[in-house]
């Protein structure tokens, strides 16, 4: 609450980490570098992960992370941007930003709680995420100075959970190896998420998800009058017209 982030070291079992890394490698095959400076022209990003969850499931639904997100956003929330990121050698530091900046909301609204899973060790040399502790409480317009940034150094299998208001950026990868991460935003249920998960997953994709992931994909209504289909919880509609 005070710093705007928490590092959860070595949260994944060795087995889950190994399988997540293998899944990441499979997804990254053939992935191209991004075509803009913000995402990084030496960074590969893979989206549409809800149609190929595979070995990422334990990361997307990890109880420790889920508890923190629920504390921050309430019981009903949804995935925002969700992507696998591979920061390749030579990628310079990203522009500083806070993720909730995409929403035209006052700074004191906690709209997002996000998580970066380290699939490789995050080190000062390979571009560990840079964060400005406490910056989630800063007023609009206050930006971090260089000396206010610290690197999120953590071993592979760890996660950093942080407020969507926290200023941060991917660091400069000066190493010889790729730094891989699974980045998962969670947003309030009445906001439009960055990714259109339900469309990307499609009916078949939603059918194959666990009920928890289906809710996080945005199927859960924000309230009885927000996000329904035909006046009903979309989960019921899915059961009737797809699952049933
Ligand atoms: O890769 C990282 O360390 C952070 C990336 C990030 O904040 C972003 O792409 O929005």
From TrEMBL:
InterPro entries registered for this protein in UniProt: Phytyl_CoA_dOase-like (IPR008775)
Pfam families associated with the record: PhyH (PF05721)
Transmembrane segments: none
Record protein name field: Ectoine hydroxylase-related dioxygenase, phytanoyl-CoA dioxygenase (PhyH) family
SUPFAM superfamilies assigned: Clavaminate synthase-like (SSF51197)
Annotated source species: Actinoplanes campanulatus
């Amino acid at each position: 609450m005070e710093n705007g982030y928490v590092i959860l070291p070595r949260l994944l079992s060795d087995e889950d980490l190994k399988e997540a890394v293998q899944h990441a490698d499979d997804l990254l095959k053939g992935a191209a570098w991004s075509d803009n400076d913000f995402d990084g022209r030496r960074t590969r990003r893979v989206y549409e992960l809800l149609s190929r969850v595979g070995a990422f499931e334990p990361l997307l639904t990890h109880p420790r992370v889920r508890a923190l997100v629920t504390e921050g956003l309430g019981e009903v929330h949804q995935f925002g941007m969700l992507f696998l990121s591979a920061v390749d050698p030579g990628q310079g530091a990203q522009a500083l930003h806070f993720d909730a900046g995409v929403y035209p909301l006052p700074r004191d609204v906690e709209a997002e709680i996000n998580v970066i899973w380290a699939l490789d060790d995050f080190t000062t040399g390979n571009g560990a995420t840079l964060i400005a502790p406490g910056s989630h409480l800063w007023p609009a317009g206050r930006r971090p100075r260089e000396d206010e940034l610290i690197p999120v150094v953590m071993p592979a299998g760890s996660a950093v959970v942080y407020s969507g208001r926290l200023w941060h950026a991917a660091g400069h990868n000066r190493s010889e190896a790729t730094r891989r991460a699974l980045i998962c935003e969670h947003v309030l249920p009445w906001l439009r998420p960055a990714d259109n998960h339900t469309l990307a997953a499609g009916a078949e994709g939603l059918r194959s998800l666990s009920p928890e992931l289906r809710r996080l994909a945005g199927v859960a209504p924000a309230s009885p009058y927000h996000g329904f289909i035909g006046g009903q919880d979309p989960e019921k509609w899915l059961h009737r017209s797809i699952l049933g």
